[in-house]
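[job 0412] stage=complex_fold ligand=FDM status=START
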Amino acid sequence: MDNGHYNSARGSLIVLEGLDRSGKTSQCSNLLSYLRGTGLSVEAWRFPDRSTSIGQLISAYLANESQLDDKAIHLLFSANRWEKRALMENKLKSGITIVVDRYSYSGVAFSVAKGLDMGWCMALEMGLIAPDLVIFLDIPPEKAAERGGYGTERYEQLEFQRKVAKHYHTLCDASWEVVDGSLPMEAIQKQLRDLSMHCVMKCQQGKPLMNLWSSKEDCPHCN
Ligand code: FDM
Ligand code: MG
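[job 0412] stage=complex_fold status=DONE, emitting structure tokens
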């Protein structure tokens, strides 16, 4: 803390993960309004953050406008999180809660589905800020595919999403909150609100900010 303006209570890092068309994006914006309504300072972030120059390279790749080696694009996704790390830490320490649509787990699950090594993928994420809450919106890939169909972006294909789902389930540990993404919208909203409020309270009560996968024990898949 380098000035006297920080609130004593820090913000929480809340991450939503799930397949494409699992409902993450609408749930994130609903959660944002709810949390704001309780008087909290909250921001909604998403990864990839397409607004930066790295994000624009990622966006072109996803739109099939460029071709990149699988490791090269993986490194860009990871760099896109690293370039926001300091800002994220400052916001959290200044009392702002951040709701993030996708984080390192997407980075790992999608790249491992393409054949990259899980330990290699995870190692690049070590030292980013650890989420205080990871909510996994769990939905069968077939059901996600039915929801108005996929767009035209790379990865929005049933066969591929099946593989991603498998790797999400490998990453999912006891610290994750799994919410059934097939439930009615309102039921999901309620669970997300309750989980988030509980998390915010714990952070306000002094739960320390941690780094992601900071030790080998935290990262069983790291080499
Ligand atoms: N994606 C997202 C990755 O492959 N790696 C990552 O690190 C992240 C954050 O990018 F198919 C994939 C997941 C998705 C695509 O994401 C674009 P959005 O949420 O649809 O913008
Ligand atoms: Mg998408």
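Residues 13-204 form a domain with the Rossmann fold fold (CATH 3.40.50.300).
[job 0412] exit 0
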